[in-house]
Amino acid sequence: MEGGMEFIQQNLMWVGLAAVSGGMLLWQAFSGPGGSNISVSAATLLINRQDALVVDVRETAEWSAGHIPNARHIALGHLDKHLSEIEKFKDKPVILVCASGNRSGSGCGVLKKAGFRQVFNLAGGIRAWSDAGLPMTKK
After folding, report:
1. Claim: this prediction has a pTM higher than 0.70
2. Which of these, 23, 26, 31, 116, is most buried using a 10 Å CB contact count?
3. Going edge to edge, which strands form the sheet with 36-38?
4. Which domain covers residue 22, as residue numbers?
5. How many whole angstroms separate alpha carbon 27 and alpha carbon 69?
6. CB–CB of 94/74 below 8 Å?
C-alpha cells in the first residue's frame, strides 16, 4: 500500500491525466444523447437496405460545402421546430449527421424525446463519411 502511494506521488501528473481522461470517457458513455453511434458502413447499409432518413444538423454554410446525397438539412438549433417535417419517419431508421458527431448526438436526444424509435448518430460525422470515400453533393 505504501509503495502505491509513493508511485502516485512521484507520478501525480500522469495519474491526474489518467483520471481526467477516464472520467471524460465515463461521462460520455453515461450521459449519452439518446442515439446509438453508428459506423459509416453500418449507416450505408441502413440507407440502402432500410431506406433510412439522413438528417444533417450542421449550419447552412457547412451543408452548402457538401453533404450526403438525399439528406435533409435541419440545423440543430431548429430541429425541435421542424419535427413535423420528418414525423412520418418515427418508425424508420433516422441517421443524424454533423461535422464530427457531437452536435448530431444532441439531435438524437431531441428525436428520442419526440418519440422516434430508431435514432442513430453517425460516428465521426461528415468527416468520417468523406474519409471513407463515399459520395457527397452540393445540390
Report:
1. yes
2. 116
3. 36-38, 118-122, 93-97, 53-56, 72-73
4. 1-31
5. 33
6. no
Q: What 8-state DSSP symbol labels residue 137? A: B
Catalytic (active-site) positions = 98
Q: Are residues 11 and 77 in the same domain?
A: no
Contacts of 113 (CB under 8 A, 6+ apart): 34
39 and 19 within one domain:
no
Report the amino acid identity of residue 103: R
Q: Which residues contact 70 (CB under 8 A, 6 or more apart)?
A: 54
Question: How many domains in the chain?
Answer: 2
Per-residue pLDDT tens for 119-135? 999 999 999 999 999 99
Does 107 lie in the same domain as 61?
A: yes
The pLDDT tens digits of the residues spanning 75-133 come to: 999 999 999 999 999 999 999 999 998 899 999 999 999 999 999 999 999 999 999 99
Cell readout for 1 is 500500500
CA–CA gap between residue 18 and residue 82 (Å, rounded):
42
- Cα(72)–Cα(82) distance, integer angstroms: 11
Q: Same domain, yes or no, for 17 and 67?
A: no
Helix (H) or strand (E) segment spanning residue 107 = helix 102-113
